[in-house]
């Protein structure tokens, strides 16, 4: 399955999702009983952490009216306008390692991160 070229069918800022991350998220969506053709992964930025901002992710039944919607490998990703200012150009990946497995955001806008990598500053 391929990834869409642009959000909402138009050119603009991008959020990428790797195939591994999309597969993991779709599996979790399915286990929650959510319809992946409507529901999706919400990626957002919130105040918190030792560097000032942190990422948040959750599943939403449907997008909000002002969300930018990205579709990658069948996964819909919803991003609100305020969060887009901090995370445009980011790549969401799923990593496994000695410290466990989980989703990771590679954000080109970050100027510094805390030591554990859970929070950031732009």
From TrEMBL:
Q: Where is the Core domain?
A: 14-118
Show the Pfam families listed in the entry. Fe-S_biosyn
Top-level taxon of origin:
Archaea
Which GO molecular function annotations are given, in alphabetical order? 2 iron, 2 sulfur cluster binding; 4 iron, 4 sulfur cluster binding; iron ion binding
UniProt-listed GO biological process terms: iron-sulfur cluster assembly
**Would you tell me the protein name for this molecule?**
Iron-sulfur cluster assembly accessory protein
Q: Which organism is it from?
A: Haladaptatus paucihalophilus DX253
